[in-house]
Design goal:
Blueprint lengths: L1 E5 L3 H12 L3 E5 L3 H8 L10 H7 L4 E4 L2 H6 L3 E4 L14 H13 L4 E5 L7 H12 L6 E5 L9 H6 L4 E4 L3 H11 L6 E4 L1 H32 L3 H9 L20 H14 L5 H13 L2 H7 L9 E5 L14 H11 L3 E5 L4 H7 L5 E2 L3 H5 L4 E4 L4 H4 L4 H6 L4 E4 L6 H7 L2 E3 L9 H4 L8
Parallel strand pairs: 1-2, 1-4, 2-3, 4-5, 5-6, 7-8, 9-10, 9-12, 10-11, 12-13, 13-14
Helix pairs in contact: 1-3, 5-6, 9-11, 9-12, 11-12
Bound molecules: uridine-5'-diphosphate-xylopyranose (2 copies).
The site of one uridine-5'-diphosphate-xylopyranose has 22 residues, from helix 1 and helix 5.
């Protein structure tokens, strides 16, 4: 089939490449000329395991262009995968989605399906259809299908090729038939429903996962207070198949391009319709507080961070991606800088993106060792394998004060105890050898 994909972000590009892998001819459209240039050279603008290899393998079926007219004119399916960023009030910004819909209406020269992959509030697909009807130039039939995606960054290719389900919100048999033709080669179960339910499946899924994370984070906070261990608690809970063991890792809160934005957007949508989603309101609030948890722990040791050497390990919102969108590090680093700390950062792939936010204010290190040498505190924001596998004894050897405050529970309490460090983590008891507490400026007893 001939397919066009609008937007070459995480969702658009991965979808396009996977469709090409299944034998379709795919044209990727983006307004960002730099991205198109890179793509034409066979390079992926995003860090996503396996993506460049697949781009290369399917290069004969993939075209990249900034010229949407050429792409939309004669396609069987046009997938909209442009961003829907969060607006100031928490609602989703649909400007880009509507712009693409209008362009399609003005350009299409044959009957086609518009598949909306961007995450959009319930009812948006209906509006897109109306917008297309009002603007269509040629005598063609254009149907709109809601087709949300569930890919995670870092495993996006695998999540697309081996998705758990393909959700299609359709209004006609013809739309269903064309979409099935496109997706049948993937051999993945379908959920066929109406458009509003499909739109809701996406939001309800992401919000549920965010809720699960905020829930386990709250239980972790309580574990710290009452002396329980969150890892054992999560293990015990997760063995019940009704709960499931995934997304039960307590930490410093969720980030990324989806959970923060989609929780706020669903909450906003409910409010707009005079309904309060209390569970989601709490999810958002818990997450905002959780992001500040490490700093609060550190303040129990130091009244101020002024003049301290502070190592930050991991800045991306999770491992396996260079994406910093809504990463907890972006909330914490400015606090440290404002307090006058000397911030030394290490991350295997996220530092180039971090430099865009902090070009000169912080020191970028080439290794974990370099970042922690002579440090008074070390914060861990992302559980990169390099950090988990790092020889924990080196913290006490290299740091000035071996105070490690870990937001992702990278180390066992036993190894921290053996390494002789002061170790604070999430939902577990503090590890502290008595003699260390005296070397800090204002220690807790
Ligand atoms: C996607 C979605 O589509 C969003 O709704 C979902 O919730 C998360 O995933 P993502 O792929 O992460 O977004 O977006 P991003 O990486 O921002 O990429 C969007 C791309 O669309 C960019 O390359 C941008 O240049 C392009 N774009 C944007 C257009 O081509 N045209 C526009 O009018 C606007
Ligand atoms: C998410 C959804 O998983 C995906 O289905 C949807 O399409 C887009 O949003 P993504 O944002 O790439 O994907 O990452 P995900 O792996 O879900 O992690 C999101 C955030 O939650 C990260 O900051 C991660 O650190 C955090 N998280 C995840 C936890 O804190 N604990 C967990 O147990 C799992």
């Amino acid at each position: 089939m001939k397919i066009a994909v609008a937007g070459t972000g995480y969702v658009g590009l991965v979808t396009a490449v996977c469709l090409a892998e299944k034998g379709h001819d795919v044209t990727c459209v983006d307004i960002n000329l730099q991205k198109i240039d890179l793509l034409k050279q066979g390079k992926s603008p995003i860090y996503e395991p396996g993506l460049e290899e697949l781009m290369h393998k399917n290069r004969d079926r993939l075209t990249y262009t900034a010229d949407y007219m050429d792409a939309y004119r004669l396609s069987d399916v046009i997938i909209i995968a442009v961003g829907t960023p969060e607006k100031q009030d928490g609602s989703a910004n649909l400007e880009y989605v509507y712009e693409v819909a209008k362009q399609i209406a003005e350009t299409a020269e044959q009957d086609c399906i518009v598949a909306v992959k961007s995450t959009v509030p319930v009812g948006t697909n209906d509006k897109i259809e109306r917008l297309i009807r009002d603007n269509v130039r040629n005598n063609v039939s254009i149907e709109v299908v809601s087709n949300p995606e569930f890919l995670s960054q870092g495993t996006a290719v695998k999540d697309t090729l081996y998705a758990t389900r393909i959700v299609l919100g359709v209004k006609s048999r013809n739309a269903e038939k064309v979409m099935r033709e496109m997706y049948d080669p993937f051999n993945i179960p379908y959920v066929i429903t109406d458009r509003r339910s499909a739109e809701m499946i996406k939001y309800a899924s992401n919000n549920f996962l965010a809720l699960k994370i905020s829930y386990i984070n709250e239980i972790a906070n309580l574990c710290e207070i009452v002396g329980a261990n969150i890892e054992d608690v999560a293990k015990g809970m997760g063995m019940d198949p009704r709960i499931g063991d995934r997304f039960l890792n307590a930490g410093i809160g969720y980030g990324g391009s989806c959970f923060p934005k989609d929780t706020k957007a669903l909450h906003w949508l409910a409010n707009f319709n005079d309904y309060e989603l209390k569970t989601i309101k709490a999810t958002i609030e818990v997450n905002e507080n959780q992001k500040l948890k490490l700093i609060k722990k550190a303040r129990r040791y130091f009244d101020s961070f002024r003049g301290l050497n502070v190592a930050v390990l991991g800045v991306t919102f999770k491992p396996g991606t260079d994406d910093l969108r809504d990463a907890p590090s972006l909330v914490n680093i400015p606090i440290l800088l404002e307090d006058g700390a000397n911030v030394r950062v290490w991350d295997p792939v996220g530092m180039d993106n971090l430099r865009k936010n902090f070009p000169e204010e912080i020191i970028y290190c080439q290794s974990i060792e370099e970042a922690i040498t002579n440090a008074d505190i070390c914060f861990i924001f992302t559980e990169w394998p390099e950090i988990k596998q790092f020889d924990i004894k080196k913290y006490s050897k290299l740091m000035k004060n071996p105070l490690v405050i870990d937001g992702r529970n990278c180390y066992s309490l036993e190894s921290a105890s053996e390494a002789g460090i002061i170790y604070e983590s999430i939902g577990r008891k503090r590890v502290c050898k008595k003699e260390h507490s005296y070397s800090l400026s204002s220690p807790v007893s």
